[in-house]
Amino acid sequence: MSATRQIHNLALIGFMGTGKSSVGRLCAAALRFDLIDTDQIIEERAGQSITEIFVKQGQETFREMERQLVAEMAGWRQKVICAGGGLGANEANLASLKQHALVVCLWASVETIWQRVRHQGHRPLLQGPDPLGNIRSLLEQRSPFYKQADVLVNTELRSLREVADHVLHQFKGARSESPAQQP
Ligand code: S3P
Fold it and tell me: Rounded to whole angstroms, how far apart are CA atoms 104 and 37?
């Protein structure tokens, strides 16, 4: 990582069902950072659920809301940012996040993701007739972006606590090298 990177925040990206919210909560508590959930902010601002935004305004409007929010993050400090699954699968969003955050991608296989999300009904992209097929093709499409994260953490066979500890270890290491932390 470049010695000039400013690491003020921790950004968790990755596919739906990889544990970003749960791991983010543990990391935020340990670091005493604010926990930010991008979906939650977008829902609050729109006064609509993510599903309603997708249905009534369309996915492209939702992506634009994500892009605007990412731009605002440049001035943020001491935040753990839990990004919606599609936010980190975008070159410009990734580049912007890397200006101020260590970008950590949580990873899981198609099968594991399916087992984790199959009984949850709040994700518009998994509402079609073939959610498993959707997960497979979306993950394949997004992998090249997710793999550009600073750190890729496999969440298979690890507890949330173990994943969080690993993320925290990486974050503290990166931050100690960041010029923002040096006197
Ligand atoms: C999406 C993931 C969701 C939410 C929206 C779209 C995606 O967030 O932003 O349903 O494109 O993968 P989670 O990853 O928090 O479920």
Answer: 15
